[in-house]
Design brief:
Strand content: under 5%
Structural class: mainly alpha
Length: 189
């Protein structure tokens, strides 16, 4: 892979890994909040007006923002039964078709997800609950995650395009370790 293209693909993957790691920490406050809510509700008969809604507002971004890095690690649900039976050349062909389809889908979703975010920000939209928090941060997670997914699909497409298939191993899996963690395909640093 040319150095500029490789640097771009690796930078996109590093950004998505950083977002993924930061997103994992969104779950850290969820457990104590839910424990507090359960204790307040069932032991003291005094449920909060904010705990359940906060958890719902955090879970959306949590799932969405983890997706782009999972595309890189091949952790999404796939047709493994079919792909295991195919040669590396056919797996490469499927990847070269699949990644542009993902990018096109993400572009359409990005186009349609931006107006609701703009509307939520400009009108100061809230959840209309007793707690009534602003909803734009949760809505912003959709175009952000879709944009990052589109970039990661581009990075994976460039990797697949520039990596010839290896005998007995799909190209995406061969490149996965070396590009993700800075190791060589043999696992040595």
């Amino acid at each position: 892979m040319p150095s500029l293209v490789s640097a771009l693909a690796n930078a996109i993957t590093r950004l998505n890994r950083l977002v993924f790691v930061a997103t994992v920490w969104l779950m850290a406050p969820v457990v104590p909040i839910m424990i507090y809510e359960v204790i307040a509700r069932y032991l003291f008969g005094a449920p909060t007006v904010w705990a359940m809604e906060l958890v719902v507002l955090v879970f959306g971004p949590y799932f969405l923002l983890g997706g782009p890095y999972l595309l890189h690690t091949h952790s999404h649900v796939g047709l493994d039964v079919l792909r295991q039976r195919l040669s590396p050349a056919w797996n490469r062909i499927f990847d070269l078709i699949n990644y542009p389809v993902i990018m096109a889908f993400c572009a359409i979703l990005l186009w349609y997800s931006l107006p609701p975010v703009w509307s939520a920000v400009s009108y100061g939209e809230t959840s209309f609950s007793a707690w009534n928090p602003p909803v734009w941060p949760a809505k912003l997670a959709v175009p952000l995650a879709v944009g990052l997914m589109m970039l990661q699909a581009l990075a994976e497409f460039l990797r697949t395009l520039s990596t010839p298939p290896l005998a007995g191993e799909p190209p995406a899996q061969a490149d996965q370790t070396s590009s993700r963690e800075g190791h060589t395909p043999g696992g040595q640093p």
